[in-house]
Design goal:
Elements lengths: L3 H21 L5 H9 L4 E4 L3 H7 L6 E2 L13 H8 L8 E4 L4 H12 L5 E3 L28
Parallel strand pairs: 1-2, 1-3, 3-4
């Protein structure tokens, strides 16, 4: 029979290994992304639309590169704009955020296919998803998007 202490150690080990696997697979929690951004270890890039930025605000110091326009039209310059946000360095670590993780999963795969090596996906997004409650519900900081209408 497994005692409570051993069970706790097993569950803790599993949780830590799952967190490591998630980050290795490119998923990152909002808290981890925020901490790494604050420490200068990565850039957060918000790929939502301008209207969405205006509705919820954005992460402080996040770069803004829409994957789609407010009308759902794909941004044909997306990869070029991401590269510019990274100062031309495809090996610079960055984390993508959208509303709920769908666009970031697609964009992360696209960017990896284009040679970007340090792409992370904040799968919870700003509003939450099956991965968790999201940036806003976790009480992480935002700033107003002054250029958004």
């Amino acid at each position: 029979m497994i005692g409570p202490s051993l069970l706790f150690v097993i569950l803790l080990s599993f949780s830590l290994s799952q967190a490591a696997l998630s980050e290795d697979a490119g998923l990152m929690t909002p808290e981890t992304a925020w901490q790494k951004a604050e420490n200068g270890e990565l850039l957060i890039i918000d790929i939502r639309t301008q209207d969405e930025w205006g509705d919820t605000g954005i992460a402080p110091d996040a770069a803004l590169v829409s994957l789609y326009s407010d009308w759902g039209i794909p941004n044909l310059e997306f990869v070029t704009e991401i590269l510019a946000a990274l100062d031309g360095d495809k090996d610079k670590p960055f984390a993508l955020i959208c509303a709920g993780g769908v666009r970031t999963a697609f964009a992360a795969d696209l960017l990896r296919d284009r040679g970007f090596s340090q792409v992370f996906d904040i799968g919870e997004g700003m509003l939450g998803s099956g991965d968790g409650p999201g940036w806003l519900a976790r009480g992480l900081p935002t700033r107003e998007c002054s250029d958004c209408t």
